[in-house]
Amino acid sequence: MATLVVIGLGYSATRIVQEVAGRFERIVVTVRDPARAAALTGDQVVATPFDGTAASDRLAAALRDAVALLISAPPRADGADPLLACHSKDLDAASRLAWVGYLSTVGVYGDAGGGWVDETTPCRPVSPRSAARLGVEGAWAEFGAARGVPVVMMRLSGIYGPGQNALEQVRSGTAKRIVKPGQVFNRIHVDDIAGAVAASLARPNVTGPLNVTDDEPAPPQDVTAFAADLLGVPPPPEQDWEAAWPTLSPMARSFWGESKRVRNARLRQDLGYQLRYPTYREGLRALLAHGYLP
């Protein structure tokens, strides 16, 4: 039975499962909450509790049958990957495994001062979260090299899509239009993350780091203004970066402390993937047209 195992069923992984379901006879996903696991289990999808602190017998059995493995869960507090930490022996016994995908972040590059980065750029992560991601990337690369299994580390930009986008922020009144000169970043629609994973499953020879990002890095305030224009409302007032700093969460401060433009040539050329939403404009227009707003 062709089995896909998905570690961590969050926002992106949920959309990925929908995209690739037709390729597998069975999909085993992990969630932290046992009650959610019971609610999600159906004819094709089997959900099992796994919090990354102890091995799971059901997950161990699924790994031994897996032909593909997607890791969407973040590193543990100690920096280790939860699956490698708890199920290394079961992974060694996964003789049918032919593809491993790890969802990472472009945060591993750190701050480029608004310059361009690609997969050959040395990684200098700034935040502890990104540093942990980079460490786990290395651990999975070592696993793939030792086992002869293709491993792709998908470095994702700022994720948006249904229920998580600038249109909803503007409409709800929670959008901020902070202006920091020179600040730019890329984005990626969740549908394009799912599409890239499907393309990678079809071309497992494309391994190693892979930037999964759109074509146009842009200042955050431009995206907010565009969303407001689509909705036909005035954009939020501009806020100076320094004035807004005291109101920002630690995670937001980390985000605003990095600026870079991420190239996606390898995604387009090596993987042969054509973005459904090349920029935030196409993505936001589609979200509005398809009624993905409350």
UniProtKB/TrEMBL annotation:
- NAD-dependent epimerase/dehydratase domain: residues covered: 100-205
Annotated protein name in UniProt = NAD(P)-dependent oxidoreductase
PANTHER family, A to Z: EPIMERASE-RELATED
Q: Which UniProt keywords apply?
A: NAD
Under the heading InterPro entries, the entry gives: Epimerase_deHydtase, NAD(P)-bd_dom_sf
